[in-house]
Design goal:
The protein is α+β, with helices and mostly antiparallel strands. It is about 60% helix and about 15% strand. The strands form two sheets. A five-stranded mixed beta sheet has the order 2-4-5-7-6, covered by helices on one side.
Length: about 300
């Protein structure tokens, strides 16, 4: 009986140790995924800064112009108020005449609204970029949440746009999708990895097509490029850790391996087709949220 008790205690200890090791591996996976995601952001930092500088520039320039316009127009408005109070118009006519001699008042008045409209649009663009960055860079809740795959695509395009626009014309055919459950930041990092790989596979300038759709109980994401394609001998190695066909210093060989793990961890799968010399298609299948699936 003592031997049985000792054996049971040993078994419990081994189970506890195994559980502890599983928890450590899980934590390391989370850290690795976050590190890979932030490394991706780091490589895009200059492009993101450029994307931010564009709207910042025209918001600033428009506000400078608006300030100059108001410096001309405010005295006229002040005189108009004085005229309304006193009923004397001669001073106002002289003031307007003096200003009109050196300024095109009609143009200034007409140009105020477009300046304000552009400034607001620039502010909206800044807000969208920053919002996309915040969603992309955040640490996901380990329990997961409901999310929209199209939103993940849009957030990732905001982050990567400055890199992509010089390499390809990007088309996004966004189908109507059912919600998914999981970690949207991780899915966005997968999309970023596939988009950057697609851009790097294009020698000069090409096309990248992104298609999202529902197929039964799955949401499907296809990313297709017309780049150089993948040699047949590399197809079986694509998702192997540390395998890379890129030149030294251009890739860690972990991007596709981590992406493969993320998709599998979400209960999905990732497939690839390539015609060497003509391009590649990566297709991701993710199960829709079960309650939505059973209701539809």
């Amino acid at each position: 009986m003592n031997e049985m008790d000792e054996s049971a205690r040993d078994l419990r200890k081994k189970e506890q140790e195994l559980e502890r090791l599983r928890e450590q591996v899980k934590n390391l996976q989370v850290q690795l995924i976050q590190s890979e995601k932030m490394a991706g952001l780091g490589s895009l930092a200059a492009g993101v800064a450029h994307e931010l500088n564009n709207p910042i520039g025209f918001v600033k320039n428009n506000l400078i112009s608006l300030r100059e316009y108001l410096a001309v127009l405010l005295p006229v408005l002040s005189e108009s108020l004085a005229f309304a109070e006193t009923g004397q118009g001669e001073s106002l006519r002289r003031q307007i005449g003096d200003i009109a001699a050196g300024e095109d008042l009609a143009f200034l008045i007409e140009d105020i609204d477009p300046l304000l409209k552009d400034a607001v649009e620039g502010g909206d663009r800044l807000e969208q970029i920053v919002d996309g960055l915040k969603r992309f860079a955040r640490c996901d809740d380990t329990e997961g949440e409901l999310f929209d795959l199209n939103q993940c695509v849009q957030d990732t395009l905001k982050v990567a746009w400055n890199e992509l626009k010089y390499k390809a014309k990007v088309h996004h055919e966004a189908g109507r999708l059912l919600p998914l459950h999981g970690r949207p930041g991780e899915i966005s990092s997968v999309i970023l990895n596939l988009l950057m790989n697609a851009a790097q596979a294009i020698p000069e300038f090409g096309e990248i097509n992104i298609d999202t759709l529902c197929a039964g109980d799955e949401v499907v994401l296809c990313i297709t490029d017309n780049g150089e394609g993948i040699p047949a001998e590399n197809m079986d190695k694509l998702f192997t850790p540390f395998f890379t066909a890129k030149t030294k210093g251009k890739g860690t060989g972990l991007g596709l391996s981590i992406s493969h793990g993320i998709i599998e961890d979400h209960g999905g799968r990732i497939e690839v087709e390539s015609d060497f010399g003509k391009g590649s298609t990566f297709t991701i299948y993710l199960p829709v949220y079960k309650e939505q699936s059973s209701e539809s």
